Q: What sequence folds into this?
């Protein structure tokens, strides 16, 4: 796994694909959400318009370099998660930088963004941003419980932490997917996915009603653009990760896009059906239901 | 009452504990190893007719020196303790009856003489320095009872007490230097067995003890009387 | 001489009884004296040998088999004097206590505890 | 050589004549008096030296007859030893009492002289009845002197004393006379020999009565109320003689008559001694009167000494055996010097309540003396009590007498509680009244202070394998030199310490091998680095440098230790040094106490562990023998582990840590947190590398430790997020971090240990940096509450950066070095198969993000408070080490292999399989792979790209004030109101609050309460009535008799 400079270009190409998928999906999902709520909703290409608009705006005031760090960390976090995950199994072009680390790296990179965002938001000096960040972090730490346990479970199951190896083990038909070979872990993973996607009922940070000025809206213009980019890439990166470890990965883009789309629909469906939790309720929920489930899943994986 | 009961129970248990001393211990059938030697060799070695005196003054002389010291300490302690208080004269006014006063005048010389006799003959007959000293002190006590306003010459007491004590120690050292060991009485000739001037330094030691004990007891009485 | 041994122990116990039950300090000291005396009796009783006489080797006493053990006699002498000294000291304490508090009840002197 | 009989001759002669000298004037009298004492000391001192050099023992016969026909005395090594100490006390206490003697009648001096004559007699005589006479001489003189003040308290105490000692001597007389009846002898040795052939209940009863009378004189629990009253009421000079001198003489009487005792009575004596030690110390817990406290302690110490002697006899040692001399002598000397010194101090301070002794602080000498005496009593090195106790435990262990050790250690622990409580109060109570120091009062204290230090050094050399302690001599000497140089300013001392310490490190490091190098880097290099912040202090900083160095001496000693003695001594030195560092904080007193108590408790458990090791390993001290324990592995392992875990602050044993680390001074917090905690880890590494697997029954101990580590991580981190105090937050975070270390070690695999060691190094780097940075903030802002800070980023940018890097490293977010630890943890967990524990570990790690964010946000981000606007960057002395640590973290992050490869290499000696495979910069396990360099490059690349682009497009943006914000369509009124800091994670508390309830604290509190209330209940026994005390004595006699003879 030697590094070749050309890999940077490969990675950028892969990044542009996923960005587009993300933007489109975002638009579609918002449309679905609106239709369920009996509203007309936006056009599905609205995210493109937004992102272009935001990138072309310029900020005239700044709170200092630290203020910049929020979006930068955020995007780096999102991109990092994506870049350290191999996308298409067996493809030299879409392996990204996964040679630098395994699934643990990806897992911890998820936090990189959150923490950095929190820092940047803190520098903004808005009291509500601190409250929002506090809530967000609290929620994330709780929501990662099943994620961590699911990843331990998967690693136990395949005796590997390498995403590539995990995908390799699932090749050769749906019956080899983790979904089939270890459904309990997959259920755990899907619950974790709900938390990871930050959608209702766990959508605390982004809830505009509760935090009038939550982190995303504190940043405007190109900062917001950066954040929006991340909002497209980051969920996609996570989805790709889940596809890889639970649903057999993909050997080509078509399969990958299909799987991403289907998996992405899962939190969307849950989100439109269930109302939002309060933060402490949500934390308690993760500890009360997800944690025992995780314990059961790990025990089952270990002994059966 | 509960407390009394506890005390009784404890004492009963104490008696039970001490029972073997009464049941198992028989008196000596014969002299012990040590006393056999004292009885057999004592008269020849030390020249003292009274073996108890021989044991007290020489064989176990250190005990006796210690004993003198204890008495001395007690005197000093009492003197130290009962600081001079202004004597309340009115208490001292009450005089003893004529009978007592006359009797005292009559008996005092005899008592003192008896005391001196007892300690001088300590190595010959029952008695000795302590007994003699106590008899002397009892004479002075009688005097104090008879004439409650009497002033004892304290500094004389000090002199007697200190010097007799010091001489006792010096005699001990002489024993160490000239004879077998500290308090050995044999640095003086043993003399004829059964005579007053016999048994080496024993009569001297006993005389000193007698003086010292007498002076100390008088001192104690004096202190106690004055502090009342 | 068992009777004297028993008597000695009775005196010791009696003295202790007095020390434990009497409230008056002087009486406690008297109890102590009684106990002391009991001890002295015990010492004397130890040295006694039946049908023998005092260890004074004058003409009346011919040989060693006729005298009692001189050692306990010598010891008791020392013990008595020491007992005297201790009793005198105790009495002095009693005087001083009375001087300070004008009381001789042992229950009145409980400033120091725990 | 002067005949020892002259001791008596001089005393008696001068005593008898002193009242005549008085006529010639007070000065002459006093001259004669002191010369007499001096001559007595000289005679016994001369004999002591001669006998040590090998002169023959002198047997003195009186009256020119050999024993048993006359009284004989003996001057042997023991006698010379005891008389010399007693007579030296005579001189010093005499000097202390000089004003009293001058103002009192001459009788005071006479009594004093007689008292010492009596004590000499008690020691030297070999005749039973003569013993009685000297006993009476001593007690009559003592009783007379007790009332030297003639006030109500001392007189009523003296009366109780005279009655009690009268009773005791009556018993003694009874015993003696009946023994004479059975043996026909009064000479002690011959009597003992004759008793071998005697039989019958009455014989043993007589011996029992004799023994019990001496024990009563030694003040056994509970028949000791009379003695306690005297300790409380009499003049301090006199009490020092009673507590040290008279007790010493009686102790030797006990040793002498122990020749008469059979097995059964020996057990009785040992039992009484142990019970006395235990209960005296228990009751002392509730005591607030300083002198009564010392009284309890004296009684306890004496109990310990004679029980130790009895245990030795039971274990088959002869009284003259060198070990017995060493232990009993060591304990005795320790008690003797310390107690005499403390009573003198009581006389100087003139305060009844032990809380009011802070006046000692007005004199450095006396304060130092006080601390030394307290530490000596608590049994810490380098004082004689420590070495004696060590040897005692080892010898008893060798004979398998573990219950005895248990009681002794429990008693010692109780003792430590009140001693350190007292020390803490003296060191910290404010304000205090300065005391007036008179030279004749300070002189004796200074002499015994010197004596106790010297005997400590002497004893350390002669105990079993004591020569191995010589590695500590030079460093400890340096500590002493620092004490002497304490008058210099901080600047000089700090530089001196850094230079000497660097040189020492330079000398030591090459001697280390294996994992010790790793710890050497943390302990020594880290130590040097953390002295740099010391430059921020002004003035002299009295006492800081010697004690800080002492802590490092201990740590270095641990690294160099080859045997358990070295290990334990170093451990205690380290504890001692760190205690004094911790207590320097303004509000540290209760926390330092709890630190010390946990440390002492842990150390005693550890000592027991070493004892068991000594027992099973054929009486060897070498640490290497840990690897070949034939038996009782589980017990040794658990005991040692428990000891080490108290220092590592695992959950349950952690409650001392937050306060101790949080309240410590700015530059002390990083020392104790980043460095000191690793000492516990070092112990665990030593232990675990020697014993690979251990089970008690079905319980696999490392497995238990694994769970303990995991729970520690979870709860430690959870508690950290609720803290309002920045330093406490970091302290709780240390609890959690050390949980990782424990967990990694417990995995008992190559990867586990690699994790643990990586984590330890990382923890050192980031925790030192964080504590320095936060310390700097606290130093500038003047509060530790995070909600009173905020927005300091512009004022303190460098501190901000180091906190930023610190928390990223701490939370394990890539690309910094913390991630190495996390990645290794995952792999190690998977390799070991501890999935559930692993999950707890990782969830605990997630929670760490919360407090990390809170720390940086609440302190540096958000809105600045008005009163903090003028705050400057932390002083340079604090920043320099931070920058160094920052560089170290970056290097470690980019090139993790530089550290992990060598560590892995030596770990192969312990765990040959399962290590990391390296291909260039990538580390592989059977599960995953990781390349620190490329992670850094990729992350850095992305990061810089986006950042530079943003900077570029917004280059024309105008910089506005931080407060230039609008939210919810309003402009905020004041910056204060817009900074959210208090109860930051309220929702977490709502959800998981039940886990943060102080169950552990409550547990320890309850335990403390129970101990204290039982102490309070039992001490009601001493109702102050002299008559009741007599009853106690009698009841004691009867009960002991029926217990030991069964009726």
A:
């Amino acid at each position: 796994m030697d590094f070749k400079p050309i890999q940077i270009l490969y990675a950028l190409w892969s990044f542009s694909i996923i960005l587009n998928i993300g933007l489109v999906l975002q638009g579609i999902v918002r449309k679905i959400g609106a239709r369920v709520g009996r509203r007309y909703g936006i056009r599905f290409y609205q995210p493109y318009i937004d992102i272009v608009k935001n990138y072309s705006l310029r900020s005239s005031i700044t709170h200092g370099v630290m203020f910049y760090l929020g979006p930068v960390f955020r995007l780096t976090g999102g991109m990092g998660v994506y870049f350290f995950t191999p996308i298409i199994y067996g493809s030299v072009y879409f392996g990204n930088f996964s040679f630098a680390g395994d699934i643990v790296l990806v897992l911890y990179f998820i936090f990189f963004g959150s923490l950095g965002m929190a820092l940047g938001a803190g520098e903004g000096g808005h009291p509500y941003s601190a409250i929002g960040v506090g809530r967000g972090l609290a929620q994330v730490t709780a929501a990662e419980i099943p994620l961590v346990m699911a990843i331990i479970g998967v690693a136990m199951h395949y005796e590997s932490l390498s995403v590539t190896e995990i995908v390799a083990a699932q090749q050769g038909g749906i019956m080899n997917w983790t979904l089939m070979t270890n459904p309990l872990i997959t259920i755990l993973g899907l619950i974790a996915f709900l938390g990871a996607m930050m959608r209702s009922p766990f959508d605390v940070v982004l809830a505009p009603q509760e935090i009038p000025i939550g982190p995303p809206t504190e940043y405007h213009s190109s900062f917001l653009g950066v954040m929006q980019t991340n909002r497209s890439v980051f969920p996609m990166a996570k989805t790709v990760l889940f596809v890889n470890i639970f649903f057999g990965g993909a050997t080509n883009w078509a399969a990958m896009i299909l799987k991403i789309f289907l998996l992405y629909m899962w939190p969307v469906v849950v989100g439109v059906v269930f109302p939002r939790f309060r933060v402490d309720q949500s934390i308690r929920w993760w500890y009360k239901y997800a944690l025992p489930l995780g314990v059961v899943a790990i025990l089952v994986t270990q002994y059966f | 009452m509960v407390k009394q009961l506890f005390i009784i129970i404890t004492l009963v248990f104490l008696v039970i504990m001490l029972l073997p001393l009464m049941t198992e211990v028989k008196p000596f059938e014969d002299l012990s190893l040590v006393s056999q030697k004292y009885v057999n060799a004592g008269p020849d070695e030390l020249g003292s007719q009274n073996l108890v005196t021989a044991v007290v003054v020489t064989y176990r002389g250190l005990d006796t020196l210690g004993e003198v010291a204890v008495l001395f300490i007690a005197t000093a302690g009492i003197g130290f303790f009962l600081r001079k208080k202004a004597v309340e004269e009115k208490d001292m006014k009450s005089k003893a009856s004529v009978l007592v006063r006359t009797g005292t005048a009559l008996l005092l010389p005899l008592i003192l003489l008896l005391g001196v006799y007892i300690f001088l003959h300590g190595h010959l007959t029952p008695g000795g320095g302590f007994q003699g000293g106590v008899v002397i002190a009892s004479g002075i006590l009688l005097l104090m009872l008879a004439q409650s306003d009497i002033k004892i010459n304290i500094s004389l007491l000090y002199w007697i007490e200190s010097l007799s004590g010091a001489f006792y120690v010096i005699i001990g050292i002489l024993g160490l230097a000239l004879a077998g060991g500290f308090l050995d009485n044999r640095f003086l000739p043993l003399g004829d067995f059964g005579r007053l001037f016999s048994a080496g330094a024993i009569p001297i030691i006993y005389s000193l003890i007698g003086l010292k004990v007498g002076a100390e007891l008088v001192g104690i009485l004096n202190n106690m009387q004055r502090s009342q | 001489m068992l009777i004297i041994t028993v008597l000695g122990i009775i005196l010791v116990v009696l003295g202790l009884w007095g020390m434990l039950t009497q409230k008056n300090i002087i009486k406690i000291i008297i109890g102590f004296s009684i106990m002391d005396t009991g001890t002295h009796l015990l010492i004397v009783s130890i040295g006694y040998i039946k049908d023998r006489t005092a260890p004074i080797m004058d003409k009346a006493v011919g040989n060693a088999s006729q005298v009692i053990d001189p050692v306990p006699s010598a010891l008791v002498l020392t013990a008595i004097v020491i007992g005297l000294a201790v009793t005198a000291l105790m009495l002095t304490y009693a005087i001083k206590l009375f001087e300070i508090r004008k009381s001789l009840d042992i229950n009145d002197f409980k400033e120091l505890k725990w | 050589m002067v005949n020892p009989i002259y001791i008596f001759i001089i005393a008696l002669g001068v005593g008898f004549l002193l009242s005549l000298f008085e006529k010639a004037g007070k000065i002459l009298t006093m001259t004669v008096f002191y010369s007499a004492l001096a001559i007595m000391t000289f005679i016994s001192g001369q004999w002591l030296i001669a006998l040590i050099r090998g002169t023959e023992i002198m047997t003195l016969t009186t009256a020119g007859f050999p024993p048993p026909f006359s009284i004989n005395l003996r001057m042997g090594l023991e006698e010379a030893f005891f008389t010399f100490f007693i007579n030296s006390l005579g001189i010093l206490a005499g000097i202390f009492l000089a004003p009293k003697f001058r103002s009192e009648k001459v009788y005071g001096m006479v009594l004093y002289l007689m008292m010492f004559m009596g004590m000499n007699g008690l020691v030297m005589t070999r005749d039973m009845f003569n013993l009685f006479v000297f006993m009476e001489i001593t007690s009559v003189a003592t009783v007379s002197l007790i009332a030297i003040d003639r006030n109500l308290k001392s007189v009523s105490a003296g009366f109780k004393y005279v009655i009690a000692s009268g009773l005791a001597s009556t018993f003694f007389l009874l015993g003696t006379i009946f023994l004479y009846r059975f043996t026909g002898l009064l000479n002690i040795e011959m009597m003992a020999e004759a008793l071998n052939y005697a039989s019958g209940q009455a014989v043993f009863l007589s011996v029992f009565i004799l023994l019990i009378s001496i024990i009563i004189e030694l003040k056994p629990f509970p028949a000791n109320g009379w003695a306690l009253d005297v300790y409380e009421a009499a003049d301090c000079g006199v009490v020092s003689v009673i507590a040290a001198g008279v007790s010493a003489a009686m102790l030797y009487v006990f040793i002498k008559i122990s020749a008469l005792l059979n097995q059964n009575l020996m057990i009785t004596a040992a039992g009484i001694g142990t019970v006395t030690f235990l209960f005296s110390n228990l009751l002392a817990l509730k005591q607030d009167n300083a002198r009564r406290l010392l009284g309890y302690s004296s009684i306890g110490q004496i109990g310990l000494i004679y029980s130790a002697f009895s245990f030795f006899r039971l274990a088959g040692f002869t009284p003259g055996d060198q070990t017995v001399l060493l232990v009993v002598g060591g304990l005795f000397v320790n008690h003797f010097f310390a107690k005499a010194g403390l009573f003198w101090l009581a006389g100087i301070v003139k305060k009844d309540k032990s809380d009011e002794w802070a006046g000692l602080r007005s004199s450095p000498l006396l304060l130092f003396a006080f601390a030394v005496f307290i530490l000596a009593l608590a049994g810490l090195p380098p004082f004689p009590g420590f070495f004696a106790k060590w040897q005692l435990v080892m010898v008893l262990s060798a004979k398998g007498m573990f219950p005895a050790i248990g009681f002794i250690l429990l008693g010692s622990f109780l003792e430590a509680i009140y001693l350190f409580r007292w020390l803490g109060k003296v060191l910290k109570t404010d304000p205090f009244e300065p005391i007036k120091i008179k030279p004749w009062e300070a002189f004796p204290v200074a002499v015994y202070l010197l004596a106790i230090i010297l005997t400590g050094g002497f004893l350390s050399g002669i105990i079993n394998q004591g020569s191995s302690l010589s590695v500590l001599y030079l460093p400890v000497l340096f500590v002493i030199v620092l004490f002497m140089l304490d008058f210099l300013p901080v600047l000089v001392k700090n530089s001196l310490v850094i230079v000497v310490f660097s040189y020492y490190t330079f000398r030591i490091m090459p001697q280390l091998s294996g994992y010790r190098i790793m710890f050497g880097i943390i302990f020594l290099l880290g130590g040097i680095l953390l002295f740099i912040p010391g430059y921020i202090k002004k003035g002299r900083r009295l006492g800081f440098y010697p004690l800080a160095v002492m802590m490092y001496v201990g740590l270095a000693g641990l690294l160099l230790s080859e045997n358990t003695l070295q290990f334990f001594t170093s451990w205690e030195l380290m504890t001692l040094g760190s205690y004094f560092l911790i207590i320097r904080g303004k509000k540290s007193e209760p926390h330092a106490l709890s630190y010390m108590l946990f440390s002492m408790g842990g150390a005693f458990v550890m000592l027991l562990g070493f004892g068991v090791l000594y027992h099973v390993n054929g009486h060897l001290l070498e640490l290497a023998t840990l690897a070949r324990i034939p038996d009782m592995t589980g017990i040794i392992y658990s005991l040692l582990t428990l000891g080490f875990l108290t220092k590592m602050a695992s959950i349950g044993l952690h409650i001392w840590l937050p306060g101790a680390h949080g309240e410590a001074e700015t530059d002390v917090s990083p020392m104790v947190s980043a460095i000191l905690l690793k000492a516990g880890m070092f112990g665990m590494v030593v232990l675990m590398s020697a014993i690979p697997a251990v089970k008690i029954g079905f319980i696999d101990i490392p497995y238990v430790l694994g769970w303990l580590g995991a729970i520690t991580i979870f709860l430690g981190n959870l508690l950290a997020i609720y803290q309002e105090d920045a330093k406490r937050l970091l302290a709780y975070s240390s609890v959690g971090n050390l949980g990782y270390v424990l967990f990694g070690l417990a995995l008992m695999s190559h990867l586990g240990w690699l994790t643990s060691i990586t984590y330890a190094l990382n923890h050192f780097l980031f925790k030192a940096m964080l504590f320095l940075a936060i310390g700097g903030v606290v130093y500038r802002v003047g509060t530790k509450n995070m909600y009173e800070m905020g927005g300091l980023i512009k004022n303190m940018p460098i501190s901000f950066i180091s906190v930023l890097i610190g928390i990223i490293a701490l939370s394990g977010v890539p690309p910094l070095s913390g991630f190495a630890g996390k990645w290794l943890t995952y792999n190690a967990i998977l390799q070991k198969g501890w999935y559930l524990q692993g999950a707890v570990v990782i969830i605990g790690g997630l929670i760490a993000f919360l407090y990390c964010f809170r720390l940086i946000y609440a302190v540096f981000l958000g809105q600045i408070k008005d009163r903090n606007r003028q705050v400057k960057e932390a002083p340079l002395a604090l920043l320099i080490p931070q920058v160094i640590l920052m560089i170290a973290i970056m290097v470690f992050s980019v090139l993790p292999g530089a550290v992990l490869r060598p560590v892995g290499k030596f770990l192969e000696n312990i765990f040959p399989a399962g290590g990391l495979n390296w291909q260039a910069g990538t580390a592989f396990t059977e599960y995953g792979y990781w390349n620190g360099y490329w992670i850094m490059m990729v992350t850095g690349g992305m990061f810089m790209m986006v950042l530079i682009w943003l900077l570029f497009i917004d280059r024309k943006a105008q910089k506005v004030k931080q407060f230039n914000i609008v939210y919810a369509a309003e402009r905020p009124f004041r910056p204060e109101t817009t900074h959210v800091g208090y109860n930051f994670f309220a929702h977490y508390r709502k959800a998981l609050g039940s886990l943060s309830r102080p169950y552990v604290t409550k547990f320890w509190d309850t335990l403390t309460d129970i101990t204290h209330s039982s102490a309070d209940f039992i001490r009601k026994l001493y109702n102050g009535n002299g008559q009741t005390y007599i009853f106690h004595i009698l009841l004691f006699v009867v009960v002991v008799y029926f217990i030991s003879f069964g009726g």
Remarks:
- Residues 104 and 161 of chain A are 7 Å apart (CA to CA).
- The first strand of chain A starts at residue 61 and ends at 62.
- The radius of gyration of chain A is 19 Å.
- Chains A and C do not touch (no CB pair under 8 Å).
